[in-house]
Amino acid sequence: MKNDIVEVIGVxxxxxxYIKDYDELLNPENAENAVIIEMVIKKPLHEIDIxxxxxxxxxxxxxxxQSVYDEVxxxxxxxxxISESDVRKAGYxxxxxVFFFHYLDFEKPMQTPFGDASLTTLTKMPMRLEGKIEYxxx
Length: 138
Fold this sequence. Notes:
By secondary structure, the chain is mainly beta. Helices cover 9% and strands 29% of the residues. The protein contains two helices and eight strands; from the N terminus they run E-H-E-E-E-H-E-E-E-E.
């Protein structure tokens, strides 16, 4: 399924080194069942409601579906983390973000306000993002 507005760049493993205070987690299962997703949405940030990015789970009410967690924004080339306000000031035509997602089902697409987006296979996080993304327990 091709989506001309939303592209999942990658789905990355959450390695222990990306988890803040791993030995002190209250619920390690959350971290063990999380992945990192990198996505480009070909819309400026002011046209996007990130809270609407999810994955359907028919066994739960809609308000209990997993959602984007602890998103960060990237520059257009995906090499630097930048603030939300800098994304807005830059006036990017596309929004590139990275976020954590718990209990991802690789058999289902991500649901966005702009249609479904196919997932990629699970891989190691690229070097350009290493040390820039850190998981904090929800």
